TrEMBL record:
Gene3D superfamilies noted in UniProt: Ribonuclease Z/Hydroxyacylglutathione hydrolase-like
Coiled coil regions, renumbered to chain: none
Metallo-beta-lactamase domain sequence ranges: 12-194
Keyword hit for Ubl conjugation: no
Domain of life: Bacteria
The name this protein goes by in its record: MBL fold metallo-hydrolase
MF-aspect GO terms: hydrolase activity; metal ion binding
Key words of the record: Hydrolase, Metal-binding, Zinc
Known cofactor(s): Zn(2+)
Length: 211
C-alpha cells in the first residue's frame, strides 16, 4: 500500500489517499474545502489513474470532514465512520460559519465501522481499531502487512490529540494510545491528522505525554 498525504484547509489537516498496485484508492479524512483544494485532490487521483472505492473518517471534527460531500458526490462512494462520532458530525453545521466555513455541506454516513472490522480494497486490508479520547468515535486504520497506521488525531510526533473539545477525555486518550497503539510493532509508521509522520517506537521513547 502506498500512502499519499495532501495537506488542506487553515487547520493544516492531513488528507490521506491509500492506494496499491490495483489502482483502487481509499480517501481518509478529506479536508479539502475550497475549489483549489478540491482540484488538487482530483488532479492527483486523475493523474495517477486511481479509482476511489471508499471514503473513511477517523473522526468527525470539522477539519477532517470538509471534503466528505465532495468526495462522496464526485466518486460515488458512501461515508464510513464510527457511530459514536455521529453527534460530532451532526454538530458541525451549527458552528461551521463561525470558523469561516460558510459553504460547508453535510455528508451523512452510509455505513458504520466497529472495532476489528476489516476494510478491504485492491489487494490491501486495513484493520479498524477503536481509539477514543480525542473524539468519542475515533478509529484508526492499520495496514498490518505494510506496517502503516492512519492515526487521525490520536498520536502525533512528540505530542497527542487535544482533549478539550466536546467528547474529549485525556485519560481515555492515554489509555487508547497505550493499549491500542503501543502494542503494535515499533517500526509501524504513524500517519497523523496533522504534522509529520512518526513511528510507534519513536513515540514510546520520546513522547513527553507518554513517558
Amino acid at each position: 500500500m502506498t500512502v499519499t498525504c495532501l495537506t488542506f484547509n487553515p487547520f493544516a489537516e492531513n488528507t490521506y489517499l491509500l492506494h496499491d498496485e490495483t489502482k483502487e484508492c481509499v480517501v481518509v479524512d478529506p479536508g479539502c474545502y475550497d475549489a483549489a483544494e478540491k482540484a488538487t485532490l482530483q488532479k492527483f487521483i486523475s493523474d495517477n489513474g486511481l479509482k476511489v472505492v471508499k471514503l473513511l473518517n477517523t473522526h468527525c471534527h470539522i477539519d477532517h470532514v470538509l471534503g466528505n460531500k465532495f468526495v462522496a458526490d464526485t466518486y460515488g462512494v458512501g461515508l464510513e465512520m464510527h457511530e459514536a462520532d455521529l453527534p460530532t458530525l451532526r454538530a458541525i453545521p451549527a458552528y461551521a460559519p463561525s470558523y469561516g466555513f460558510v459553504n460547508y455541506e453535510e455528508q451523512l454516513p452510509a455505513a458504520f465501522l466497529i472495532e476489528n472490522d476489516t476494510v478491504t480494497f485492491g489487494n490491501t486490508e486495513l484493520k479498524v481499531i477503536f481509539a477514543p479520547g480525542h473524539a468519542p468515535g475515533h478509529v484508526v486504520f492499520y495496514d498490518e502487512q505494510g506496517k502503516h497506521l492512519i492515526g487521525g488525531d490520536v498520536l502525533f510526533h512528540q505530542s497527542i490529540g487535544r482533549t478539550d473539545l466536546p467528547g474529549g477525555d485525556f485519560d481515555t486518550l492515554i489509555s487508547s494510545i497505550k493499549t491500542k497503539l503501543f502494542v503494535l510493532p515499533e517500526d509501524v509508521t504513524v500517519y497523523p491528522g496533522h504534522g509529520p509522520s512518526t513511528t510507534i517506537g519513536f513515540e514510546k521513547k520520546n513522547n513527553p505525554f507518554l513517558r
